[in-house]
Specification:
alpha+beta, 6 strands, 21% strand, globular
Length: 170
């Protein structure tokens, strides 16, 4: 099991506190705030625990390390070491595995962080998209190490999600 203290040390080693590529964003929790950031997931506003061992509920071994641009958590299962993202609908969490361990996750963040300059806003990204050969090479690297993960998650960081409101959409 990965301890909270070890996880804090790993968060200190990340190359960025925030990753922004066009519309996509990851906001990493500050290591010193990691435990406080868990409250949103482990208890309701009345202080009642949301961790009860039922299928689809937040699990005690899950620790959120970041959120994306809309507040969706990115979390690690401290027993398995797998990283996930997920959403909660009608009280049930649906989770998607995005990395097999923190070392790989950190590697993917390092790769993406090198692409952020000049692509910090959706408009910047549209004007300066990631060249297809670079995006393809990144995806080959990710797929090689994460074949049983949700590859679409990483593809979204490399795509231009900008939609011209004046163009007819199909």
């Amino acid at each position: 099991m990965i301890s909270i203290e070890d996880l804090k040390l790993e968060l200190y080693k990340l190359p960025v506190e925030k990753l922004i590529l066009g519309y996509r964003q990851i906001n990493f929790f500050k290591p010193e705030d990691l435990e406080d950031e868990q409250l949103l997931y482990i208890q309701n506003y009345s202080g009642i625990s949301l961790v009860n061992g039922k299928e689809g509920e937040w699990k005690k071994e899950w620790t959120a390390i970041a959120t994306d641009e809309i507040g969706t958590p990115i979390f690690i299962d401290r027993n398995s070491g797998f990283l996930y993202t997920g959403s909660k609908e009608d009280g049930i969490w649906t989770v998607y595995k995005i990395a097999n361990n923190f070392t790989l996750y950190k590697r993917y963040i390092e790769i993406l962080s090198k692409l952020t300059e000049g692509r910090e806003t959706p408009e910047d990204f549209r004007v300066n998209p990631i060249p297809e050969p670079i995006a393809d090479a990144i995806m080959v690297e990710i797929e090689k190490n994460s074949s049983d993960c949700e590859i679409w998650y990483w593809e979204l960081f490399l795509e231009d999600l900008w939609v011209d409101p004046n163009e007819e959409q199909i």
